[in-house]
Amino acid sequence: MHMCPSFEALCCLRDDGSYIFLGFSLSAVLKKKRFNAVDVGHILIFVHKMTRMSPNTQTAAKTPRDQIIQSSCPACGAMVGGETIEVHDHEYGLSHIAKYLECGVCSTLFQEPMPTLAELSAFYPSDYHSMTHAGLLNKIRNDVRIRRLSKLVIDEGVILDYGCGDGAFMVQAAQRLPQRHFWGFEIADRTETTILAEGKVTLVKGSLRDLLAILPSCGLITLNHVIEHLPDPLSVVTALADRLLPGGIFEGQTPASDSLERSVFGRKWSGYHAPRHTVIFSRAGLCCMLERSGLSMPSVLGAFNPAALAVSLGSVPRNGVGRIRRSGLKWFVLVALAGGLAPIDLWSRRPGIINFIAFKLPS
Predict the structure, then answer these.
(1) What three-state secondary structure class fits 231?
(2) pLDDT band (50, 70, 90) for residue 134
(3) In a designed cystine with 90, which of 45, 222, 263, 315 is the match (CB 3.0 to 4.6 A)?
(4) Alpha-carbon distances, residue 330 vs 5, 153, 266, 334 (angstroms)
(5) What is the pTM assigned to this prediction?
């Protein structure tokens, strides 16, 4: 498990708009006898940010020859430039080619240009896999997720499933955890609130603003393969973290850009899920973003998800766009093969899918 430290910088603003660097506190890191990769990543992020504060660097950034492709990393905030990585849609056959930049500081990937919400909505076909929870594999996956969440719930507050699809998971979870109240949210053009499972589940469709207008305080917020679909994950996570009770938990599952699986499959890696995945976090980048949102003690851990590896395997024969159907004999063979390879993915310490968790500490 990777634990991410926090640290503070001390700066003084000059009259000409530049900064004087006075020092910083790295006590959480320096007290350690050994550093892990995430610690080093946080130090590099910090040094990179402080370097960019110098007057010379600010002046150089304004010269025309440096205005190639530059954008701010959604994870660590560093400026990112260079050539983009073009990725086809290997799962649903869309002709749109997504272009990703990779942060040189934290290794997070993100689309450039970032698609708008209207553009993103056109990338999801009517038979998109997360909008249905039928089938044995989905039931098993839901059971595993319910067991994980049951260990995290606190006594107070509701459980919010942000990006809940049709709400089937929450209904199943409410049956297993009848003493809890569940809220779910799915983005939609029209605002709608539905009560399910005899009042145990409240499903809200609409905008984030619509949700926040009626959402009660939360003890647990979960985003299962959702955070990588958000064009501006920092603003969404910050708004949601504000609704957590002290001691509340923010958790989820997402692909990791610094994975062995991506190194093996390249642009055919399922974690791209182009063009629907907008930001694909590295482990250090995700921890940094969670801390920037106001959450504390973020950590990540490898997750067992053979379906993701099965999509990577299914993409190998394709040179461009393609379609992978998550049903039938071919899909069963891919999942079985992925299940056999999954231990290698986990033992590599660079898993393709990670569980993440962070906490809302009392102020």
Answers:
(1) coil
(2) low
(3) 315
(4) 44, 38, 22, 6
(5) 0.80
